[in-house]
Each structure stands twice: as structure tokens, then as C-alpha cells.
Amino acid sequence: LTEQQQEINSLMQRKSAVDEENACLKNEFGNLNRKFEDKSQELKDTEECAQKKEERNRLVIKNVEEENKGLNICCADLLNDLEKLRKQEAQRKKEKSGNDVRIKNLETDLAETREQIKSLHTICSNLLSQVDVKQEE
User: Fold this and answer.
1) In Å, how far are 39, 40, 46, 48, 95 from 43, measured between CA atoms?
2) Stated pTM of the model
3) CA 8 to chain centre
4) Could you tell me which of 45, 27, 26 has the C-alpha nearest to residue 37?
């Protein structure tokens, strides 16, 4: 009987130790479970934040691409305007060059005409002198 009593006592002590260890493990499991839930929530929050940032980045990229399209159109228009202005400048240079040649020719003609007028004045003066001489005779 005492042996059985000792065995029962021993088993009771082991049961008590196992119950205590079990309580500690349950407590540790509860703590780990809370940490897991906290980390799961943190992960979920992080994923939501990353998703929102990704969406904002997509919107920013879309806006930048649209702005870039507008700027490309504006650049193309400016390049076309520049090309037109270059053509106009070339045309004006051509016209100016032609006008410069005409002005030079007109100046040459004017100088020749002045010389002719001088010559005609001289002839006229000579003729007047001859007329005066003839009249005196």
C-alpha cells in the first residue's frame, strides 16, 4: 500500500509538474499567438500602405506621362514654328539680297544719270555760249 501510495504521490507530483509546464506552454503559446496576430496586423497594414503608395505612384506616373505627351506636342509645334521662321528668314534674306542688288544697280544708274546731266549741262552751257556768240555776230 505504501508503495502504491508513493507511486500515486510520485504520479501526482509528475502530473502537477506536467500541469505547471502545460500552463507555462499555454501562456507562452498565448504570448506567441498575440505576437503572431500583432505581426499579421503589422504586415497587413504594411501591405495596405505599400498598395496605397503603389497606387499613388501609378497616378503620378500617369500624370507625368500625360504631361510629357503635352510637352512633346508643344515641342513639335515649336519645332514646326521654328522651321517656318527659318524658311521665312531665308526668303527675307533672298529678298534683301535681291533688293540690295537692285539698290546697287539704281545707285549705279543714278551716278551715270548725274554724269549724263553734268555732261548735258556742259553741252548746254557751250551751246548757250555759242548762241550768245552768234547773237553778237
Assistant:
1) 6, 5, 5, 9, 76
2) 0.51
3) 87
4) 45
User: How far apart are the C-alpha atoms of 121 and 7, rounded to whole Å?
Assistant: 162
Distances (CA, A) of 80 to 61, 75, 90, 131: 28, 9, 15, 74
Residue 109 sits at the vertex; the CA angle it makes with 105 and 112, to the nearest 5 degrees, is 140
Q: What is the CA radius of gyration of the chain?
A: 57
Which residue type does 25 have?
L
Q: What average pLDDT score do residues 89-114 get?
A: 97
Identify the sign of the CA torsion 42, 47, 53, 56: negative
Give residue 137's pLDDT.
85
Does residue 9 have a pLDDT over 80? yes
DSSP at 1 = -
